[in-house]
Inverse folding.
């Protein structure tokens, strides 16, 4: 029997929509799903550990790695660099495991250009911009200026909602998670 090919699942959402919260739950329910750890130049938040949420590197190191062609995609997001390691994706796909990515809309576009329908993109939608702002304030990880920038960017990102394969409204967390889980289940079973 032919073995199933690993899937590329990309989660995209405006900052504060609940992407990380939902991804943490997905990782528990789908232990076979391997999450990409991106590189970033943004400052480490309280509670984050280098090598767990991200590989936190300097701007100089990031630019060196761009020159060395180390990233499958990279983007400037809310004023910092973020990028996906090429070696993670290539080694993951060659072993047939399904890979999970948390990317901004630019990263999704790069993935779609590169992988076409092989990459399935799920957009997480917040109930409103006001609720998004409330969530970012209550998370308490960003300065007021950074929250303002993320909210401004969210307005553009929300306009991209219909460009992706699926959209899940994260109003009630349990309901959103059930919907997301069903989508991921159906993708991994294909
Ligand atoms: P993101 O990763 O998209 O930036 P987070 O997962 O960090 O967002 O969520 C932002 C904040 O909103 C966190 O404090 C989280 O606990 C909270 N949150 C997530 N989903 C919901 C929800 N459905 N209702 C209320 N608060 C939520
Ligand atoms: P945060 O700083 O809140 O962790 O992430 C900010 C944004 O960067 C989010 O939209 C997240 O999806 C995006 N992001 C994280 N890693 C990558 C990556 O490797 N590439 C791209 N293009 N975006 C990323």
């Amino acid at each position: 029997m032919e073995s199933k090919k690993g899937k590329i699942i990309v989660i995209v959402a405006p900052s504060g929509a609940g992407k990380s919260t939902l991804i943490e739950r997905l990782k528990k329910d789908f232990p076979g799903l391997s999450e990409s750890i991106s590189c970033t130049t943004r400052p480490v938040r309280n509670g984050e550990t280098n090598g767990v949420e991200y590989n936190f590197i300097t701007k100089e190191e990031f630019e060196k790695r761009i020159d060395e062609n180390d990233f499958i995609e990279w983007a400037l997001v809310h004023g910092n660099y973020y990028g996906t390691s090429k070696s993670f994706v290539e080694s993951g796909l060659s072993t047939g495991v399904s890979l999970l990515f948390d990317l901004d809309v630019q990263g999704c576009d790069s993935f779609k250009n590169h992988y076409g329908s092989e990459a399935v993109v799920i957009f997480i939608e917040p109930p409103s911009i006001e609720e998004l702002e409330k969530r970012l304030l209550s998370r308490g990880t960003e300065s007021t200026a950074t929250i303002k920038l993320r909210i401004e960017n969210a307005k553009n990102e929300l306009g991209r909602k219909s460009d992706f394969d699926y959209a899940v409204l994260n109003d009630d967390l349990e309901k959103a998670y059930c919907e997301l889980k069903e989508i991921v289940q159906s993708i991994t079973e294909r």
